[in-house]
Amino acid sequence: MLSSGLRFLNQPAVRLGADTFLKNGYVKRTMSISALAGFEGKHFISIDKLSNEELRGLLDLSKKYRDTYGKNATVDPVTAPKPLTGKSVSMIFQKRSTRTRVSTETGMNLLGGQALFLGPSDIQLGVNESMRDTALVLSRFNSIVLARVFSHNDVLELSKHATVPVINALSDMHHPLQTLADLMALEDHFGDLKGKTLAWVGDGNNVLHDLMLGGAKLGMNIRIATPVGYDANAGVIETTKKLGAENGTEDVFLTTVASEAVKGSDVVVTDTWVSMGQESEYEKRVKEFDGYQVNASLMKHANPGAVFLHCLPRHPEEVSDEVFYSEQSLVFPEAENRMWTVMAVMAAQLGKL
Fold this sequence. Notes:
The protein is an alpha/beta fold. It has twelve helices and nine strands.
């Protein structure tokens, strides 16, 4: 729980190796990267399309890459393994992003491959060329096609026609890469997440969709507070309930009151209230999200030791500086994990484990 004597930090969370003893006494389980043996050639569209074993394998491979290529690694990045030498990924960006572009370009470079940025002025999906033709052409040049788009149907259309693996780097329905980064940050902090409670406070959007799917797969209880009219997708909620039942969690808790969702939680998560393309709704949304700011007062409803996540970029109306820059905030390790996790997805898709 936040205290009046908050310490403001900007440092990574404690990172746990495969055999590290956690503070609560149990040992972190062995890595299961071998579960990805059958992932070669698969698309990465949403978290619910992964088996529990594949999700586990991607998280473990991400941690392995951080240990191998990270700034605290003992391996020289020049002589480190380059499993994706000769491979390339085309990155289609209808929507700009700092983390997605930098993490993918840097991560592909660390693995020995090349990333090519295709912005709105370089490529217009379905406008000057059909989606089918774009998918088929890029498949001839590149090993992977990554797409950050407005409509989820665009990702589905690309994956339907591409002859190489496709990565959904964000659509209006799903953001699976962000969920991998979030879950990795939470495992680094807590260890096993089974039985932990995750509270979402804000818009029922694409980030929430994959996070509740992934949390349920790892045995987390899900509590959601959204303003009236900003509910999460009903189909995704039902899928989450099904996954929760399979993995021994409580039923998904839904409310319009932020403090009710946060009560008894171990993780509090929010996101931007106004996504790209919704700028004209700014004043309306800020008014309707009144009472949803994550601040010290709201965090007092969470369990002692609760942590905070935000996928960035953040705005002060969404979370106070007191929480955002506190010890409880994992936002910067969370952001760093975007690189390790996209590296894991690309390597697994190409069978280069």
